[in-house]
Amino acid sequence: MTIADLQVLYEDNHLLVVLKPAGVLAQGDVTGDVSLLEIGKQWLAQKYQKPGNVFLGLVHRLDRPVSGIVVFAKTSKAANRLCVQFRERTIQKTYLAVVEERLASPSGTLIHYIQKRTGNRRVHIFHEPHDKSDRAELSYQVLEETADKSLVQVQIHTGRHHQIRAQLAAIGHPILGDHKYRSLVQLANRAIALCAFQLGFSHPTQPRELFFQAFPPHEWPWTLFSKYKVDKL
């Protein structure tokens, strides 16, 4: 990914809202691969011809194989206030996922208990409270189905590591491409069929609400389904 590839949804003095492609890191790690955060800094430096370091605060993350909307803070004030919104769960976050097989119920709420173990990149999930586990809750709605796949809209009510991935797999419907959670399907670019497609929050310095929506990339398996069947928040 380069600066030319960056898709900017919104920018003002305090915010930069962009699309993260699947396979791109939100923040740099030990791999040394390019990250969305670094690309965002380069984009701002180029646009405003800033020779020195550019401040850009990462206030939330998407897993590497996930696509969707990411908001960065351009000021420390915005970063602090957005972090409070994420921590207090006043942010509206809606995801789309393509999962294997048809779900038994067209909508529902899932409650599990997730345990993250040191050195293990997968989380362990339980149906009852377990030692050092955290409660995980999400609600889902099936938007469309094929013979053996479902397009599901998901809202998370807690913010646990790999929550959507683990919870959907726990009920027998892994997200397509998610080998960590037992999907047998392989997608390009290290992707899984999970997209953070809606994000709503209060502007950190102005008395107004912001809402963003961006559909998944126009590629398989998303092209199996009709965009108009996705409901807005």
From TrEMBL:
Pfam families: PseudoU_synth_2. Residues 14-170 form the Pseudouridine synthase RsuA/RluA-like domain. The keyword Isomerase applies. One of its GO terms (molecular function) is RNA binding. InterPro entries: PsdUridine_synth_cat_dom_sf (IPR020103), PsdUridine_synth_RluA-like_CS (IPR006224), PsdUridine_synth_RsuA/RluA (IPR006145), RluA_PseudoU_synthase (IPR050188). Transmembrane segments: none annotated. SUPFAM superfamilies: Pseudouridine synthase. Keywords: Isomerase. The keyword Transport does not apply. GO terms for biological process: pseudouridine synthesis; RNA processing. Belongs to the pseudouridine synthase RluA family. This is Pseudouridine synthase RsuA/RluA-like domain-containing protein. It comes from Vecturithrix granuli.
